[in-house]
Amino acid sequence: MALQEPVLTKRIPTPPFGDFSQRKLNSYEDFVATGGYAALKKAIDMQPSEIIDIMKASELRGRGGAGFPAGVKWSFLPPQDGKPRYLAVNSDESEPGTFKDRMLLDFDPHILLEGIAICMRACQLDTTYIYIRGEYHHQAKVLNKAIDEAYANNIFGPNSIMGKINDREPRCFVHRGAGAYICGEETALLNSLEGKRGWPRIKPPFPAVAGAFGRPTIINNVETLAMCGPIIDKGVDWFKTMGVARPDGVPPHVPASYGPKLIGVSGHVNRPGVYEENLGITVREMIEKYCGGMRNGKKFKSCVPGGIAMGVLSTDQIDAPLDFDIGKKFGCLGLGTAGVIVMDEDTDMVAVARNIVRFFSHESCGQCTPCREGSNWVYKTLCRIEEGNGTTADLDLLLEVSGSQGAMPGTTICGLADGTNWAIKTILNKFWSDFESRVSVSTIAGYSLPVLA
Amino acid sequence: MAWITKNSGTMQIETREEPYLDDELKAEIEANIIPRYPDRRAATLPTLHAVQHKVGWLPTQALKEIADFLGSAPSEVMDTATFYEEYWLKPKGKYVIWLCQSISCELMGRDTIMSKIKAKLNIEPGETTEDGKFTLMNVECLGSCGTAPCGLVNEKLHENMTVDNIDQILDSLE
Ligand SMILES: Cc1cc2nc3c(=O)[nH]c(=O)nc-3n(C[C@H](O)[C@H](O)[C@H](O)COP(=O)(O)O)c2cc1C
Ligand code: SF4
Ligand code: FES
Fold first, then answer.
1. Where in chain A is the domain with CATH 3.40.50.11540?
2. How far does A364 lie from chain B, in Å, by closest CA?
3. CATH of range A20-241; options 3.40.50.1460, 3.40.50.11540, 1.20.120.80, 3.30.70.1230
4. Which of B107, B142, B150, B152 would you mutate first to test chain A, the one with the most A CBs within 10 A?
5. Fewer CB in 10 Å around end: N or C, chain B?
6. B43 to chain A nearest CA, in Å?
7. Could you tell me the distance, in angstroms and rounded to a whole number, from the CA of residue A140 to the centre of ligand 2?
8. What is the least distance, in Å, from the CA of A247 to any CA of chain B?
9. Is the CB of A66 inside a 6 Å radius of any atom of ligand 1?
10. Residue A453: which residues within 8 A CB-CB, separation 6 or more?
């Protein structure tokens, strides 16, 4: 079933409920006039543990890529010990194909601030840092202005309507990054916040136990937090009418895909943009119903389901539902950020693979050898194939080198290398003939893949 | 690439009498930035941003001044400054053109726009025009993939770039 009413896009006109051209920044007054901060007032009347219970019951899953249930994460915090506790908001949004958080920041910053305040109260976190990528100059300004409005209206600050949190005045700041994709990884983000280079940390300890400045820290994506207000306001039952329920027989501890999701579509479609739909909408519906079909009447060839780290879907997987189970069912890493990049029949998949791996090679932080060296190696091999100088042995090599890197084979600190791994693996396996037709048969003995008919 | 090491060991450091991080800027950071964090080192990124905003780039002397101001070792500030692509450790042009090279922008034709800019300015990515007006850079995804191809000129985002409107964009800059 399609989304019945806009949730996160309530104040951001979006087809089919509104028109992109009508989008404008919502001030504090606009936000309050349309029901904003009512959920925070409700949350203030609840015990912090009640708020966490609601978030847990809603099964809201993180919208930043990994899909971890937010309420469960919140319940990992140790008891208060009188010292500071932090919220770090992940607004680093740098995964190619992802531009959804930007839309919230551009037009409705207070929906994020309300979610932040609810999270601070629920988890008893006194200080929030919104880590925003350096390139979002305009969004940082909008956010700073919205934070000023929020202080002026006692959402944060010494006279906050939340009173003291963790025995301190609730505070909220913007912290600007400076151009490094890896700072979106949560522990790299913490190092960057502390003024260091953005190197991911080995986990454990997890940030909820020892995060920013060694203190308990919750890290959530912008969209995850923005969803908190509507859930507190309208309740768990309402939230669970949207999205995909747990199939019969699946145990209750396995999270389902409830709720609406911001889906950013880019690439070869007529009307790219950020839309909101229930989790579970198919790629085909997104393209046809929302994006005005394929550009120039071309045929669909492939798409990235949610940021390039997820790998690609094959031509016949166009009916894949965009939910958190997409990885298991359609041979990709997962839903990621639901930033869908659509490619038409004329797309050269060798060039796509080369571009994607160049990204990961460029953005590798350099700590782990398989990631730093491997991604560069894979990139060079792909350039060679693209230039017409590759052999079948190169295809073997691509699969071997990319397949041996990542937090999932357990050779690297963070998940960036999994992006290289999954992108290559899925593009190569799903578009094998595109590669095979570009390489000559290897003459190196013992290192040649049989050429498939 | 953040992990390329820089030849800082044998580097000659140019110095000047007048500080880059002057008393006024120090006072402003002390009042508005430092109180946000539990320690001074956390103000490294905002301070680097502030100095770069004022000076245009980050001379080594400025890194040393920032280290003294924040109570860090100069090597710590250097370590941070070299990691992030937005920090300029050498002078840049008056306008930096950052053209996105990631996948959505490539699919939507960023290569022809890059060729056009290169030809028009007669420079390669990473270079600055002789008059010091433009620096051209390739950059990864700017988070505006729905309006690809796109690029930043200093702090301003330009969306849906075409070979035609890039002329207007560049010609309109003083
Ligand atoms: C290489 C890498 C880059 C990431 N970039 C981002 C990002 O830009 N924004 C984001 O919200 N999460 C990003 N994440 C996921 C975060 O580590 C973390 O899971 C997320 O912010 C948690 O928030 P959520 O549970 O609300 O999704 C990234 C992860 C990895 C491994
Ligand atoms: S996997 Fe790559 S990006 Fe992640 S910590 Fe290791 S080297 Fe850095
Ligand atoms: S790919 Fe160019 S802005 Fe995202």
1. 20-241
2. 8
3. 3.40.50.11540
4. B107
5. C
6. 6
7. 27
8. 34
9. yes
10. none
A253 vs A414: which has the higher pLDDT: A414
Rounded to an integer, what distance in angstroms lies between the CA atom of residue A289 and that of residue A265? 12
CATH architecture of A257-344: Roll (3.10)
Q: Which atom of ligand 2 is nearest to the CA of A367?
A: 7
Report the separation in Å between the CA atom of A260 and the middle of ligand 3, taken as the mean of its atom positions. Answer: 24
**A178, A195, A264 ranked by CB distance to B145: nearest:** A264
Which among B37, B45, B148 has the least Cβ separation from residue A178? B45
Task: Answer whether A221 contacts ligand 1 (Cβ < 6 A).
Answer: yes
Question: A93 in ligand 1 pocket by Cβ < 6 Å?
Answer: yes
Q: Of A229, A209, A223, A228, which Cα lies nearest the Cα of A99? A: A223
Q: Does the CB of B35 have a partner CB in chain A at under 8 Å?
A: no
Q: What are phi and psi of A274, to 5 degrees?
A: -95, 125
Of residues B11 and A303, more confidently modeled? A303
CATH 3.10.20.600: which residues of chain A? 257-344
Tell me the domains of chain B and their CATH numbers: 23-83 (1.10.10.1590), 95-171 (3.40.30.10)
The residue among A174, A362, A373, A386 with the most chain B CBs within 10 A of its CB, best to mutate, is A362
Structure tokens at A17: 């409920």
Amino acid at site B18: E
Alpha helices in A2-95 (DSSP H): 28-33, 38-44, 48-58, 70-74
**8 Å CB contact of B143 and A93:** yes
- B41-100 pLDDT tens trace: 999 999 999 999 999 999 999 999 999 999 999 999 999 999 999 999 999 999 999 999
B35 contacts in chain A (CB < 8 Å): none
pLDDT digit string, tens, across residues A415-445: 999 999 999 999 999 999 999 999 987 766 5
In chain A, ranges of CATH 1.20.1440.230 domains: 349-436
HSE (side-chain half, CA atoms, 13 Å) at A136: 31
Instruction: List Cα–Cα distances, A424 to A310, A360, A397, A432, A435, in angstroms.
Output: 10, 11, 11, 11, 11
DSSP labels, A112-165: HHHHHHHHHHHHT--EEEEEE-TT-HHHHHHHHHHHHHHHHTTSSSTT-TT--B
Residue A452: predicted pLDDT: 45
Fold of A349-436: de novo design (two linked rop proteins) (1.20.1440)
User: Which residues are A258's β-sheet partners?
Assistant: A243
pLDDT at A252: 87
Q: Which of A242-246, A248-252, A421-425, B90-94 has the lowest mean pLDDT?
A: A248-252
Residue B62 confidence (pLDDT): 97
Q: How far is A249 from chain B (nearest CA, A)?
A: 39
Residues 36-55 of B with CB under 8 A from A: 36-39, 41-46, 48-49
Q: Is the separation of the CB atoms in A262 and A223 below 8 Å?
A: yes
Identify the residue whose tokens are 């280079």: A197
Does pLDDT of A303 surpass 90? yes
One-letter amino acid identity for A188?
Answer: A
Q: Is the pLDDT of residue B2 over 80?
A: no
Report the residue among A202, A203, A363, A368 best suited for mutation to probe ligand 2: largest number of ligand atoms under 8 A from its CB. A368
